Sequence to fold (72 residues):
Amino acid sequence: MKTLTGTYYKGKLKLDSPYNPTHPIRVKILINEEEQKELKLSDFSFLETQDLLKDCKSSFAEEVISERRKEH
Fold:
């Protein structure tokens, strides 16, 4: 048995890390609603994000666009 984590939103499940089985497998999904909290604008910090990205050599916008294209 293997435990995977991810986020389910608007009918889609996105795993936190890739999992590529070699054959079809049956799954059970446990919804852990206690951990969910509504995000507010105050949960985000522009200065903190800027600091985290200071060594990033690529465009943040391009990375976001690339990631969103992979989801579809």
